[in-house]
Amino acid sequence: MDLLLLSNGKVAGNTKVMEFALPAITEVFNRKKVKNVVVIPYAVIRSSHDDRTAMVADSLSHLDVSVTGLHTADDPVKAIRDADAIVVSGGNTWVLNKTLHDLGLIGPIQHAVAKLGVPYIGWSAGTVISAPTIRTTNDMCIVSAAITPSLSFVPFQINAHYIDATIEGHMGETRDERIEEFLIVNPHQSVLGIPEGSWLAVSGDKMTYQAANDKPMHWFKLNQERKIIEAGSDVTELLSLDC
Q: Which of 120, 146, 195, 241 is the most core-located residue (most Cβ within 10 A)?
């Protein structure tokens, strides 16, 4: 598989979505000879699917590729089958995951990426759905009949936009406390907290952790001290976790 799982879409100083990871995206697209890019914008709520697709097209304008929003396809399943690369936008994870299930797209995306080697680029919600479930998303569940199983490209849970901080005057749970609650209820699983400006890069059977700002990744497992993983680290071992 070729996966680039970005924590978020932009960092300070960026003008384009995915800008901080564009060198990595360019390398994958050139290596895989990508021509036909399909954007999945279903997570977007507060702007249009057309606008989000246009943002991705602008970010990829330095490449000789065609960019199409999956929402415009008469046959979304066929569009996935014809894609040379899949880019999945951030937004609301619950809406994104439910829409993919409702349209019968989970299986076709899994087949394209895991069996055919089609590159998969996601950020925020698009990254969270690469885990076995979306139960460690930060998003509110704003849809009824919510579905949690997702694409399961990686064996661990992901918490995107991870921040190791407390807010003065805020009496609610911290991010770490929420992750601890998840692990208490799901003791056999683990969670990767991926901070802003960082991503997981999977190529074949290898995985590395990368960051444009050198922020470390946090690996949580019940009854174990969290592991702090520095940018540039080989984290292939995490792909074989029994979780």
A: 120
